[in-house]
Amino acid sequence: MEHPTGRRVRVGAMTGLLMIAAVLAVPASSAEAAARPRCGGLRATIVGTAGDDVLRGTRGKDVIVGRGGNDRIDGRGGADVVCAGSGNDRVTVKGRRSRVRGGPGEDRLRADGPQAVLSGDQGDDVLTAGAGGVALLGGDGDDEITGADVPGRQDGGAGNDLILLGDGNDVAVHGGPGSDRIFGGGGNDRMDGDDDVDECHGGAGTDTCHGGAPGGPENTAADPDFCAPDAEVHISCRIPAVPERWKLAIEGTSNYTNGTNYDTEISWVVTAYVEQYFKQDGRTWYLTAASGLSGSWTGTGRNGECTIEGSGDVVDGDLSVTMALDELSGTYDLQWSGPSVRTPGSISCPWGTSSYSMTNRAADTAKYQTWDTDDPAHPLTGSRTVTPDGPDGGLVVSYTWRLEPAADPS
């Protein structure tokens, strides 16, 4: 063929070369696409190397594979799918329904888009939800999981995990196998420790703590799982054993008058100990310990034209106490009398002063006081004003008390 310029052109040869080049290019492109790794069953659109990479997605849906190295991956927008691979990686996704797998290594994964799923896989990972409805799955390793204020799902997986909940009502919280610690936020949370020795804390709201195995559904002193008092409902948790010994601090004032020309006021501050005596029908009985009583008293009064005053110490034998804890009703009774006034006071009259023995007849039985059987060693306090001689009698006793577990003095 002759060109308009007069040159001869070999069209057939050129066409053949172009066709050969096109044939050779097609297999290369197909091979490259086939070699791309997959993540979550999807072919990767962004691929890292075996080294430390910085990978950024688009505003659309990306499939990112980090491969090896300590990578930094930012999915940006879209429902991204990320497989960070081996190494200590940092991954952030912002799109709704994104999915991230950390892979082997100590990874830090964060979801700022709702309904994402973060899986730490192997290693001690840190997973954080910055939006609601995010599933945080720690996998193997000692993971730290932090939920958002809008409820999601938290599962520590195998390992000794730390789970921190937000202020929503989180009801899908599992520690997984391992000795886990779970801290509720401001909502009404349900926390399950699952296997091994766990602890959970309720925080604000009405919370449920389930210790899980070992131990059955009942709360017992032998169960190793700890459920803090700020979790309102305890299931399969350890409860402290009923104390063998209590320390009693009691102080009060007894006022007596005959309505005419005689009245006295005696105030006292006493510390005593009560020791477990026997158990029967769900009740644990305590009696005053043989030693350890201490305290003091002061008294004033009037008898006609005369004034009365006195003071002294309280010693062993001057106060009698009986206490009973009732496990069936969750109440306790506290019965006491005293303290005895042994040291003579004085009475001063216009005609002279002489020795005078004052009498303290203070006594009471405080029945059906509230006692928490789920926390049987919690201090017990109360106050009462009573009339031991009846409403028309001349004796009025006002007192307060505090009971707290005490160690055996031996």
UniProtKB/TrEMBL annotation:
PANTHER family noted in UniProt: S-LAYER PROTEIN (PTHR38340:SF1)
Gene Ontology MF annotations: calcium ion binding
Signal peptide bounds: 1-33
Keywords: Secreted, Signal
Record-level GO cellular component terms: extracellular region
InterPro entries on file: Hemolysn_Ca-bd, RTX_toxin/Mannuronan_C5-epim, Serralysin-like_metalloprot_C
Key word Secreted present: yes
Region (Disordered), start-end ranges: 97-124, 371-393
Superkingdom classification of source: Bacteria
Places the protein is found: Secreted
Phylogenetic classification of the source organism: Bacteria, Bacillati, Actinomycetota, Actinomycetes, Propionibacteriales
Protein name per the record: Calcium-binding protein
Predominant location category: secreted
